[in-house]
Amino acid sequence: MHILITGAGSIGIAMAALLKKSGQQVAVYARGRTREAIVSGGLHKTGLFGDLDFAAEDFELSDDYGDFQENSFDYILICAKTMANDAVSQELNQHRGLLNADGRLVIFQNGWGNDAPYRRFFSAEQVCSARIITGFQRLEPNVSKVTVYTSPILLGNLAHCDVRPLEPLARAITDGGIPCETTDAVDKALWAKMLYNCTLNPLGAIVGVHYGALTENPYSVAIMNSIIDEVFAVMTAAGYSTNWPDADSYRKEFYAKLVPDTYNHNSSTLQDIRAKRPTEIETLTGCILSLAAEHNIPVPVNTMLYRLVRTMEANY
Question: In what order do the strands lie in the sheet with 153-156?
Answer without folding.
Answer: 60-62, 25-29, 2-6, 73-78, 99-107, 127-131, 153-156, 180-182
